[in-house]
Specification:
The protein is an all-alpha fold. It has helices at about 10-25, 35-55, 60-80, 90-100, 115-120. It is globular, with a radius of gyration of 17 Å.
């Protein structure tokens, strides 16, 4: 959704407002999630759609979608704001950093690499001993400054 690649009218403007600014300032914790009014609006649309499709079952499924989104936001916060221990969170942080700093068109998964595997958007495997800077891609040194394209 955040990286649609389609040519909709005004898409670039809205994509920037909702998500692109997060790529320019990846360490700004206020920009980790979509604006709250938009999140509530989409959550309402999701509930309405589930209710239209499944009736009262929406009361069962909708909270689980919301819990999944909350888990995604928590993981997104951890990989941006904390130095995680040497476990799966460290892998997720590295994977997500590849998306922000090296491969904008790869490594979309924040909470899991599953969909990157399914859709073939996994970044290339790094060779042992290679530093991030060895990928021949400019990396922003000061993460509080906009990244240059």
């Amino acid at each position: 959704m955040y990286h649609s690649g389609k040519d909709f009218k005004n898409e670039k403007y809205w994509q920037y407002k909702i998500h692109g600014v997060h790529h320019l300032f990846p360490r700004d914790l206020k920009l980790l999630a979509m604006p709250i009014f938009l999140a509530f609006f989409i959550a309402g649309l999701l509930f309405f759609g589930l209710f239209v499709l499944w009736g009262d079952s929406a009361y069962f499924f909708w909270p689980r979608f919301m819990l999944g989104y909350a888990a995604y936001l928590y993981i997104h916060y951890v990989v941006h704001a904390r130095k995680p221990p040497n476990n799966f969170f460290r892998f997720l942080r590295t994977h997500h950093a590849l998306h922000h700093y090296i491969y904008e068109d790869r490594a979309f998964g924040v909470s899991s690499p599953l969909w990157d595997i399914v859709f073939g958007t996994m970044p290339p495997k790094r060779k042992k001993g290679l530093k991030t800077s060895d990928h021949n891609t400019p990396i922003g040194k000061n993460n509080n400054q906009p990244l240059k394209k």
